[in-house]
Structures are given as structure tokens and as C-alpha cells.
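User: Please fill in residues for this 390-position structure.
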């Protein structure tokens, strides 16, 4: 078993699974469609709810056989404040059109930031929000907004097709899990240009890098069109990474913020991307931050932060809605509420089907101050004292 805490890798050699145990776990976790995807592309992303804990799993093939990367997620969507993000992000959630890019490396919290912004819109104004995700990590309960979520592989064959469809579905806000290829980038810009608010994630380490990636994804003869679209629609670029704060002993988001001011739009139109960093440095009055300024002027001046365990501790999911597959689409793939239970988790009897279900089973509270040995001891003790009880 290998784990990561505060960005650091650790090993626990006493907790080892053999090949057959991992294979059996994968068979129980994946439904037939996901199993077929694993066989065809040698990896698959899924999200599950286990003992009140929302988890994201990537199953992939290695020289050692199948391996699983598991990420803990909260049952309810964290708020912008509870994630220790800059409060100005709330102002951008009031926009009715434009493009918001949340950038960073893998594992820096891009998806969680996007979910927090989506929930801010959901709570504060009436809108039709459609998300295109791979996989669906946070499940939203419609509040002031009406939220519909579509997952790659289950509800859309590709982000490209999902974007083609979504423009015919009367959305106000479009949330895209990740823009990767040129066709998806083009449709994303078209959606923002047609008067929608589009929030998307992109792998990039600097604002200049993000804008370069969008423009350079097209052939040279089409890049001027992309730059024109980008300059007219860009509202915000946030580049995020997590840094360890010694005085609090946990990690918090470090942001750089680029706003789509007229000066920035002019830089994009004129293809002068090397001036982006200077624009951020001189744009402090417009609410822009370089990573260095953000740390010194915002992070270093705060006296308190919300501990990550407040967001990621085990909790029941906010939405009671079942995951349902229409019979029109063929036989459902082991669908349950809120999702197919993991092995050993039983549904409570005596409740009307489709109305309410209670998931029972082992409930582990993982404290960041505990060592991995203490966590494993807690799990082992629970399993020995209550083996496979329904």
C-alpha cells in the first residue's frame, strides 16, 4: 500500500494485496460497461460512495498487474470559503457569460474548485447548469438552480459530442471537466461566445501557458480566429497549486489570478502572450495576483484557515436522488442508490424502492494527524470485531 499525505509519498509494506485480491476487487467495483472500457483502453475512471465516503478511483494496468489510485471526496460540495480560496471567486460566479479557466497540475484541486464555484451559482441564482464530467465526482442537489450532470462514457461518448448536444439543451452555465483536444477547445469557445457562462479545467502551470495551449491547439492559419474568440470571451484564468503552510501543518491553495480586462484582451488579440505576466503584476488594482503576491498579500496575512478534514471527512451525500438509467437505453448496469454499493455494504430493508435508502457498513474517520499505521489498525480492529455483519 502506498499513500500520500500533504503531498508526500509514504509506504506501508505490511498492508499488501496479492494479484488475485486486486483482480477480484476490480471485478466488484466496475460495472460491465466500465470493465469493457478498462479492457479496451487499459484504464478507467469511476466514482463510488462507500460507507458515506465519496471516492474517485482510477483503475490502470501496470507491470505488477492492475492497480487502483483512490482519492477521497466529500459527500457534499465544499464552499469557496471552506476551501480557503480567495473570496473574489464568488464575484465571478455572478457572471452570465464568458469563459472561466481553472488550471493546474494533476491533484491540485481543480475539480474541487470548479465544484465549489458551481455550487455557489446553484445556491445564489436561478440558472440551468449542465456539467460534462469524467467521472462525476460531486453530485449536486438542485437548489436555486437546476443542475443536470452527464458523465463521459455513461451519458456522452466524448466531450466533443457532449458540447455539441449541450448547446441544444438551453443551458445558462456549462461546466466542462477538462478541455483537451482542439475540437473540444473550439466548441468551448463557441459556447462562451454564444452567451453562456463556461467553466472548464485545463492542465497548465501558468496563465501564459494556458492561453498558449488554447491557441496553439489549432492549425496556424486558424489561430487568429481562436485568439479573437478567446479575447472576446475570457473572464478569468486561475492557476492553482497546493502549498504546505508550516504554522498550520496542512496544505492550502496558492493561486495566481488573471482577469479578462481590456488590456489583457488586447494582449491576446495581438498575440503578445509574453506580456501576460507583466499584465498580472500591474493589474493588482483589478484584482489580479501573481503567485508570489497572492502568498504575501493574502495567505500570509490570514490568521486562520479551514482544516481540510472539515471538507473531506466522511459525510452522507447531499442529494438523495438515485442513479437511474432509462430502460429506453437498454438494460441498466447494476444501478442502485446513490450508486451500486461496494461489497459488504447492505441496503436497509423496508423502504419503498426509489424513495430513500440508507447505506450501512464500516465508517472510518481518517484524521490527518494519524499515521497510516493508526488508520490501518483502526480498520483492522473494526473488521475483526464485526466481520461481514449485514
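Assistant: Residues filled in for all 390 positions:
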Amino acid at each position: 500500500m502506498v499513500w500520500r499525505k500533504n503531498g508526500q509519498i509514504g509506504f506501508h509494506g505490511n498492508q499488501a494485496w496479492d494479484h488475485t485480491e486486486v483482480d477480484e476487487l476490480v471485478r466488484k467495483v466496475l460495472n460491465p460497461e466500465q470493465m469493457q472500457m478498462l479492457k479496451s483502453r487499459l484504464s478507467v475512471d469511476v466514482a463510488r460512495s462507500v460507507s458515506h465516503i465519496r471516492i474517485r478511483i482510477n483503475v490502470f494496468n501496470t507491470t505488477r498487474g492492475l492497480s487502483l489510485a483512490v482519492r477521497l471526496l466529500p459527500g457534499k460540495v465544499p464552499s469557496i470559503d471552506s476551501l480557503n480560496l480567495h473570496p473574489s471567486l464568488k464575484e465571478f460566479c455572478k457572471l452570465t457569460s464568458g469563459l472561466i479557466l481553472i488550471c493546474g497540475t494533476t491533484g491540485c484541486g481543480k475539480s474541487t474548485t470548479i465544484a465549489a464555484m458551481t455550487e455557489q451559482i446553484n445556491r445564489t441564482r436561478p440558472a440551468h447548469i449542465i456539467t460534462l464530467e469524467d467521472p462525476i465526482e460531486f453530485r449536486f442537489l438542485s437548489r436555486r438552480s437546476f443542475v443536470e450532470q452527464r458523465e463521459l462514457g455513461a451519458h456522452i461518448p466524448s466531450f466533443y459530442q457532449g458540447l455539441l448536444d449541450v448547446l441544444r439543451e438551453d443551458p445558462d452555465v456549462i461546466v466542462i471537466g477538462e478541455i483537451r483536444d482542439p475540437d473540444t477547445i473550439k466548441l468551448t469557445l463557441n459556447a462562451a461566445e454564444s452567451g453562456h457562462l463556461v467553466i472548464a479545467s485545463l492542465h497548465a502551470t501558468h496563465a501564459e501557458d494556458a492561453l498558449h495551449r488554447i491557441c496553439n491547439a489549432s492549425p496556424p492559419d486558424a489561430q487568429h480566429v481562436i485568439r479573437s474568440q478567446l479575447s472576446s470571451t475570457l473572464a478569468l484564468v486561475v492557476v492553482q497549486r497546493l502549498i504546505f503552510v508550516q504554522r498550520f501543518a496542512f496544505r492550502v491553495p496558492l493561486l495566481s489570478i488573471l482577469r479578462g480586462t481590456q488590456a489583457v484582451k488586447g494582449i491576446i488579440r495581438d498575440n503578445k502572450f509574453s506580456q501576460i505576466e507583466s499584465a498580472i503584476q500591474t493589474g493588482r488594482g483589478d484584482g489580479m495576483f501573481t503567485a508570489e503576491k497572492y502568498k504575501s498579500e493574502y495567505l500570509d496575512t490570514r490568521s486562520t484557515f479551514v482544516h481540510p478534514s472539515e471538507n473531506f471527512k466522511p459525510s452522507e451525500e447531499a442529494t438523495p436522488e438515485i442513479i437511474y438509467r432509462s430502460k429506453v437505453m437498454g438494460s441498466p448496469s447494476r444501478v442502485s442508490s446513490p450508486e451500486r454499493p461496494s461489497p459488504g455494504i447492505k441496503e436497509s430493508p423496508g423502504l419503498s424502492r426509489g424513495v430513500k435508502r440508507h447505506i450501512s457498513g464500516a465508517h472510518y474517520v481518517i484524521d490527518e494527524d494519524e499515521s497510516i499505521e493508526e488508520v490501518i489498525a483502526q480498520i483492522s480492529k473494526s473488521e475483526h470485531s464485526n466481520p461481514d455483519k449485514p
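For context: The chain has two domains: 2-73+320-385, 89-309.
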